[in-house]
Design a protein that fits this description.
Layout lengths: L1 E4 L2 E4 L10 H5 L2 E9 L2 E2 L2 H14 L8 H14 L5 E8 L16 E7 L6 H6 L1 E5 L20 H12 L4 E5 L5 E4 L3 E6 L2 E4 L10 H12 L4 E3 L4 H5 L3 E6 L3 E8 L2 E2 L7 H16 L2 E2 L1
Parallel strand pairs: 7-8, 7-14, 11-12
Antiparallel strand pairs: 1-2, 1-6, 3-4, 3-5, 4-16, 5-6, 8-9, 10-11, 10-13, 13-14, 14-15
The structure holds 4'-deoxy-4'-aminopyridoxal-5'-phosphate (PMP).
Length: 288
């Protein structure tokens, strides 16, 4: 494996950054997780634009233009001869001193890892996940906007740990008012009758790129997704539920907080979207 750090390539053993990098010291940085299907990078422009927005919101100056980052990603895929895989793009504030202020960080650090990911074993795509709502809230937009994909994932990590303690595979995070936002690393959709719902981004969710693709696939099928504030009750009485994310793609949910969703099996909408998504993802993307 060849890992890109600031314009150079390193082996896995040698890919190291400074202990004075503020990405490590303070979680000061941004990132993207990107998929490669069939030697094409999926939704690359969308990921780069979201990275740019995250960096802007944190006043973090990207060390390269988006075109240069794109070229570095494609070159990293070529060097690693990636057929299907997962790319982790990380931009940290860079090397500074032990103080909190980024004043001394003169240049952001950029890292590209072209590897692989398996978020859930295959059986969960056939049988569905068990999820729970957890005590840790999603970040409040008044504190740190949940739309920023920053290196500060601690409340999502707490949520993940809390879910695992309950024997669940994913954890649903609520906002400070008790509305459903998303999972620790995935967005949420439900179906009730003929209607499909998802929490709006302003509920406190990341503007997921898989979420956007799924909204578009639903639209192409002649239906539409309504963005609506959802409570736990809405989840309990849903006929179907599924999660979306770059790593997870589309994964069915069959149980929430001990309540069985629908008939306890992945629903028809979920199954048709899973197939449509896989097909779409294999056809689209930036070749390298
Ligand atoms: N929510 C959170 C908190 C995430 O970290 C992610 C990405 N893993 C998602 C949702 C899904 O977003 P995307 O479809 O862009 O991967």
């Amino acid at each position: 494996m060849q890992i890109y750090i600031d314009g150079q390539y390193y082996s896995k053993e040698d890919a190291k950054i400074s202990v004075f990098d503020h990405g490590l010291l303070y979680g000061d940085g941004v990132f993207e997780g990107i998929r490669v299907y069939n030697r094409k990078v999926f939704q690359l422009t969308e990921h780069l634009l979201r990275l740019q927005d995250s960096a802007r919101a944190l006043m973090l100056k990207l060390p390269l233009t988006l075109n240069e980052i794109e070229e570095a990603i494609l070159e990293c895929c070529r060097r690693n001869n990636l057929q299907d895989g997962y790319i982790r793009l990380v931009v940290t504030r860079g090397v500074g001193n032990l103080g909190l202020s980024p004043d001394k960080c003169t240049r952001a650090t950029i890292i590209i890892i072209a590897g692989s990911i398996e978020l859930y074993p295959e059986k969960y795509y056939r049988e569905g996940l068990k999820v729970v709502t957890v005590p840790t809230w999603r970040n409040s937009p008044a504190a740190l906007s949940p739309a920023i994909k920053s290196l500060n994932y601690l409340n999502n990590i707490m949520a993940k740990i809390e879910g695992t303690l309950c024997g669940a595979q994913e954890s649903i995070m609520l906002n400070s008012e008790g509305y459903v936002t998303e999972c620790s690393g995935d967005n949420i959709f439900i179906r009730k009758g003929e209607r499909i719902y998802t929490p709006p981004i302003y509920a406190g969710a990341l503007d997921g790129i898989t979420h956007r693709v799924v909204m578009e696939l639903v639209k192409q099928s002649g239906s539409q997704v309504e963005e609506k504030m959802l409570t736990r009750y809405d989840l309990f009485v849903a006929d179907e539920m599924f999660l979306t994310g770059t790593g997870a793609e589309i994964v069915p949910v069959v149980e929430v907080d001990g309540r069985i969703i629908g008939d306890g099996k992945p629903g028809r909408l979920t199954q048709s979207l899973m197939a449509a998504y896989r097909e779409y993802a294999h056809q689209h993307g930036t070749p390298f």
